[in-house]
Amino acid sequence: MFVATGGTGSVFKAKPVIPSTIPIVFAMGGDPVKLGIVASLARPGDNITGVSFLLSDVAAKQVELLHELVPRSAAIGFLVNPKDPTSEAATKDAQAAADALGHKLVIVNANSASEIEPAFAALARRKISAVFVNADPLYTVNSPKIVALADRHRMLTVTSWEGFATDGGLISYGTSINEANRQLGVYTGRVLKGTRPGDLPVVQSTKFHMAINLKTAKALGLTIPQSVLVRADEIIQ
Fold it and tell me: Which residues neighbour 93 within 8 Å (Cβ) at sequence distance 6 or greater?
Protein backbone atom coordinates (compact mmCIF):
# COMPACT_ATOMS: atom_id res chain seq x y z
CA MET A 1 0.00 0.00 0.00
CA PHE A 2 1.19 3.52 -0.84
CA VAL A 3 0.03 6.58 1.14
CA ALA A 4 0.82 9.89 -0.61
CA THR A 5 0.78 12.89 1.74
CA GLY A 6 3.55 15.10 0.34
CA GLY A 7 1.27 17.35 -1.65
CA THR A 8 -0.11 17.05 -5.17
CA GLY A 9 3.33 16.38 -6.65
CA SER A 10 3.85 13.19 -4.65
CA VAL A 11 0.80 11.36 -6.00
CA PHE A 12 1.22 12.94 -9.44
CA LYS A 13 4.70 11.37 -9.71
CA ALA A 14 3.92 8.13 -7.88
CA LYS A 15 0.82 6.96 -9.71
CA PRO A 16 2.47 6.16 -13.08
CA VAL A 17 5.18 3.99 -11.51
CA ILE A 18 3.16 2.08 -8.90
CA PRO A 19 1.71 -1.25 -10.08
CA SER A 20 -2.08 -1.34 -10.33
CA THR A 21 -2.11 -4.16 -7.78
CA ILE A 22 -0.87 -1.82 -5.02
CA PRO A 23 -3.51 0.37 -3.33
CA ILE A 24 -2.88 4.13 -3.28
CA VAL A 25 -4.49 6.52 -0.80
CA PHE A 26 -3.68 10.21 -1.23
CA ALA A 27 -4.25 13.66 0.24
CA MET A 28 -3.69 16.42 -2.29
CA GLY A 29 -4.49 20.08 -2.83
CA GLY A 30 -5.25 19.91 -6.54
CA ASP A 31 -8.25 18.65 -8.48
CA PRO A 32 -7.56 14.91 -8.91
CA VAL A 33 -9.93 14.63 -11.88
CA LYS A 34 -8.44 17.55 -13.85
CA LEU A 35 -4.94 16.27 -13.14
CA GLY A 36 -5.78 12.75 -14.34
CA ILE A 37 -5.17 11.10 -10.97
CA VAL A 38 -8.67 9.58 -10.80
CA ALA A 39 -11.38 8.89 -13.37
CA SER A 40 -14.04 10.64 -11.28
CA LEU A 41 -14.65 11.59 -7.66
CA ALA A 42 -17.39 8.99 -7.29
CA ARG A 43 -15.52 6.16 -9.04
CA PRO A 44 -11.81 7.00 -8.70
CA GLY A 45 -10.32 3.77 -10.08
CA ASP A 46 -9.46 0.21 -9.11
CA ASN A 47 -6.50 0.92 -6.84
CA ILE A 48 -6.68 4.59 -5.89
CA THR A 49 -8.71 6.99 -3.76
CA GLY A 50 -8.12 9.76 -1.26
CA VAL A 51 -8.88 13.28 -0.13
CA SER A 52 -8.81 16.53 -2.09
CA PHE A 53 -8.49 19.51 0.23
CA LEU A 54 -8.93 22.17 -2.43
CA LEU A 55 -6.04 24.46 -1.48
CA SER A 56 -5.41 25.26 -5.13
CA ASP A 57 -9.05 26.27 -5.57
CA VAL A 58 -8.91 29.17 -3.09
CA ALA A 59 -6.48 31.35 -5.05
CA ALA A 60 -9.24 33.76 -6.05
CA LYS A 61 -10.43 33.96 -2.44
CA GLN A 62 -6.92 34.82 -1.29
CA VAL A 63 -6.71 37.69 -3.77
CA GLU A 64 -10.15 38.90 -2.68
CA LEU A 65 -8.95 38.84 0.94
CA LEU A 66 -5.90 40.96 0.11
CA HIS A 67 -8.21 43.30 -1.80
CA GLU A 68 -9.93 44.07 1.51
CA LEU A 69 -6.59 44.99 3.10
CA VAL A 70 -4.89 47.15 0.46
CA PRO A 71 -5.89 50.11 -1.73
CA ARG A 72 -7.67 49.22 -4.95
CA SER A 73 -4.81 50.58 -7.05
CA ALA A 74 -2.14 48.51 -5.27
CA ALA A 75 -0.35 45.71 -7.08
CA ILE A 76 -0.46 42.27 -5.44
CA GLY A 77 2.40 39.80 -5.50
CA PHE A 78 1.91 36.10 -6.18
CA LEU A 79 4.59 33.59 -5.18
CA VAL A 80 4.17 30.26 -6.94
CA ASN A 81 6.18 27.09 -7.58
CA PRO A 82 5.95 26.49 -11.35
CA LYS A 83 6.85 22.82 -10.88
CA ASP A 84 3.75 22.14 -8.81
CA PRO A 85 1.03 20.48 -10.93
CA THR A 86 -1.59 22.89 -9.54
CA SER A 87 0.36 26.07 -10.30
CA GLU A 88 -1.17 26.76 -13.71
CA ALA A 89 -4.77 26.59 -12.48
CA ALA A 90 -3.99 28.64 -9.37
CA THR A 91 -2.24 31.31 -11.43
CA LYS A 92 -5.19 31.61 -13.81
CA ASP A 93 -7.63 31.93 -10.91
CA ALA A 94 -5.48 34.50 -9.10
CA GLN A 95 -5.02 36.52 -12.29
CA ALA A 96 -8.74 36.52 -13.06
CA ALA A 97 -9.57 37.67 -9.53
CA ALA A 98 -6.94 40.43 -9.60
CA ASP A 99 -8.21 41.68 -12.95
CA ALA A 100 -11.80 41.73 -11.72
CA LEU A 101 -10.85 43.68 -8.59
CA GLY A 102 -8.62 46.20 -10.36
CA HIS A 103 -5.24 44.98 -9.14
CA LYS A 104 -2.11 44.23 -11.12
CA LEU A 105 -0.82 40.75 -10.27
CA VAL A 106 2.97 40.49 -10.11
CA ILE A 107 3.98 36.83 -10.39
CA VAL A 108 7.31 35.53 -9.06
CA ASN A 109 8.48 31.92 -9.09
CA ALA A 110 10.45 29.86 -6.59
CA ASN A 111 10.90 26.12 -7.05
CA SER A 112 13.59 25.61 -4.39
CA ALA A 113 14.31 26.97 -0.94
CA SER A 114 17.22 29.02 -2.28
CA GLU A 115 14.91 30.85 -4.71
CA ILE A 116 12.44 32.09 -2.08
CA GLU A 117 14.58 35.00 -0.83
CA PRO A 118 15.35 36.32 -4.35
CA ALA A 119 11.63 36.08 -5.16
CA PHE A 120 10.76 38.33 -2.21
CA ALA A 121 13.58 40.69 -3.17
CA ALA A 122 12.10 40.93 -6.67
CA LEU A 123 8.72 41.83 -5.19
CA ALA A 124 10.33 44.43 -2.96
CA ARG A 125 12.02 46.06 -5.94
CA ARG A 126 8.57 46.38 -7.50
CA LYS A 127 7.31 48.10 -4.33
CA ILE A 128 4.85 45.27 -3.64
CA SER A 129 3.40 45.49 -0.14
CA ALA A 130 0.99 42.54 -0.27
CA VAL A 131 1.69 39.00 -1.45
CA PHE A 132 -0.29 35.80 -1.79
CA VAL A 133 1.89 32.71 -1.32
CA ASN A 134 0.41 29.78 -3.20
CA ALA A 135 -0.08 26.50 -1.36
CA ASP A 136 2.93 24.24 -1.91
CA PRO A 137 4.82 21.76 0.32
CA LEU A 138 8.06 23.65 -0.42
CA TYR A 139 6.62 26.82 1.05
CA THR A 140 5.01 25.06 4.00
CA VAL A 141 8.36 23.57 5.02
CA ASN A 142 9.96 27.00 4.64
CA SER A 143 7.21 28.87 6.49
CA PRO A 144 9.62 30.49 9.04
CA LYS A 145 11.76 31.82 6.19
CA ILE A 146 8.73 33.25 4.40
CA VAL A 147 7.51 34.89 7.63
CA ALA A 148 10.95 36.44 8.19
CA LEU A 149 11.16 37.75 4.62
CA ALA A 150 7.66 39.22 4.81
CA ASP A 151 8.67 40.94 8.05
CA ARG A 152 11.92 42.24 6.56
CA HIS A 153 10.16 43.72 3.54
CA ARG A 154 7.05 44.76 5.51
CA MET A 155 4.70 42.81 3.26
CA LEU A 156 1.16 41.72 4.06
CA THR A 157 1.30 37.99 3.42
CA VAL A 158 -1.60 35.59 3.04
CA THR A 159 -1.46 31.87 2.32
CA SER A 160 -3.55 28.72 2.54
CA TRP A 161 -1.72 26.42 4.92
CA GLU A 162 -2.66 26.11 8.57
CA GLY A 163 0.02 27.21 10.99
CA PHE A 164 1.26 30.15 8.93
CA ALA A 165 -0.35 32.77 11.19
CA THR A 166 0.87 30.87 14.26
CA ASP A 167 4.41 31.06 12.83
CA GLY A 168 4.04 34.85 12.63
CA GLY A 169 2.50 35.28 9.19
CA LEU A 170 -0.39 37.70 8.81
CA ILE A 171 -3.27 35.50 7.63
CA SER A 172 -3.84 31.88 6.72
CA TYR A 173 -7.06 30.92 4.98
CA GLY A 174 -7.89 27.62 3.35
CA THR A 175 -9.35 24.20 3.80
CA SER A 176 -8.23 22.41 6.94
CA ILE A 177 -5.21 20.16 6.40
CA ASN A 178 -5.81 18.58 9.80
CA GLU A 179 -9.31 17.55 8.75
CA ALA A 180 -8.02 16.23 5.41
CA ASN A 181 -5.34 14.16 7.14
CA ARG A 182 -7.92 12.80 9.57
CA GLN A 183 -10.00 11.58 6.64
CA LEU A 184 -6.85 10.20 4.99
CA GLY A 185 -6.26 8.14 8.12
CA VAL A 186 -9.84 6.83 8.03
CA TYR A 187 -9.48 5.75 4.39
CA THR A 188 -6.06 4.20 5.02
CA GLY A 189 -7.55 2.11 7.81
CA ARG A 190 -10.44 0.95 5.66
CA VAL A 191 -8.13 -0.09 2.81
CA LEU A 192 -5.84 -1.95 5.22
CA LYS A 193 -8.91 -3.85 6.43
CA GLY A 194 -9.71 -4.98 2.88
CA THR A 195 -11.90 -2.33 1.27
CA ARG A 196 -11.06 -1.82 -2.41
CA PRO A 197 -9.90 1.79 -2.98
CA GLY A 198 -12.12 2.09 -6.05
CA ASP A 199 -15.16 1.56 -3.83
CA LEU A 200 -14.29 4.65 -1.76
CA PRO A 201 -15.25 7.94 -3.46
CA VAL A 202 -12.72 10.77 -3.27
CA VAL A 203 -13.57 13.00 -0.33
CA GLN A 204 -13.56 16.75 -0.84
CA SER A 205 -12.53 18.37 2.41
CA THR A 206 -14.50 21.60 2.59
CA LYS A 207 -13.92 22.68 6.20
CA PHE A 208 -12.30 26.12 5.93
CA HIS A 209 -10.19 27.81 8.57
CA MET A 210 -9.02 31.42 8.81
CA ALA A 211 -6.40 32.57 11.31
CA ILE A 212 -5.28 36.18 11.74
CA ASN A 213 -2.18 37.29 13.64
CA LEU A 214 -2.98 40.69 15.16
CA LYS A 215 0.54 41.08 16.53
CA THR A 216 1.88 40.88 12.99
CA ALA A 217 -0.78 43.30 11.76
CA LYS A 218 0.22 45.79 14.45
CA ALA A 219 3.89 45.49 13.51
CA LEU A 220 2.92 46.30 9.91
CA GLY A 221 0.83 49.26 11.01
CA LEU A 222 -2.24 47.55 9.59
CA THR A 223 -5.75 47.71 10.96
CA ILE A 224 -7.68 44.60 9.97
CA PRO A 225 -11.22 45.58 8.89
CA GLN A 226 -14.00 44.35 11.15
CA SER A 227 -15.55 42.65 8.11
CA VAL A 228 -12.48 40.40 7.96
CA LEU A 229 -12.10 39.89 11.72
CA VAL A 230 -15.63 38.57 12.13
CA ARG A 231 -14.91 35.81 9.60
CA ALA A 232 -11.82 34.55 11.44
CA ASP A 233 -11.91 31.18 13.19
CA GLU A 234 -8.76 32.01 15.15
CA ILE A 235 -7.28 35.35 16.22
CA ILE A 236 -3.72 35.35 17.49
CA GLN A 237 -2.97 38.25 19.83
Answer: 57, 59, 60
Q: Are 184 and 25 in contact (CB under 8 A)?
A: yes
In three-state secondary structure terms, 234 is strand
Q: How many domains does the chain have?
A: 2
Q: Which domain holds residue 144?
A: 57-174+209-236
86 and 124 co-located in one domain? yes
pTM above 0.70, yes or no: yes
Helices and strands, counts by H and E, the chain: 9, 11
pLDDT in tens, 90-126: 899 999 999 999 999 999 999 999 999 999 999 999 9
CA angle 103, 224, 174 (to 5 degrees): 70
Residues 6+ apart with CB under 8 A from 13: none
Residues 6+ apart with CB under 8 A from 26: 3, 4, 5, 10, 11, 32, 37, 48, 49, 50, 51, 184
Q: Tell me, what's the pLDDT at 6?
A: 67
In this structure, the answer to whether residues 24 and 82 fall within a common structural domain is: no
Spatial distance between the Cα atoms of 124 and 112, rounded to a whole number of angstroms: 19
Q: Does 181 lie in the same domain as 131?
A: no
Per-residue pLDDT tens over the stretch 171-215: 999 887 778 888 889 999 999 999 999 899 998 877 788 999 999
Report how far residue 118's alpha carbon sits from residue 188's, in angstroms, rounded to the nearest whole number: 40
Phi, psi of 90 (to 5 degrees): -65, -40
Is residue 209 within 8 A of residue 173, CB to CB? The reply is: yes
The Cβ of residue 189 has, within 10 Å, a number of other Cβ atoms equal to 11
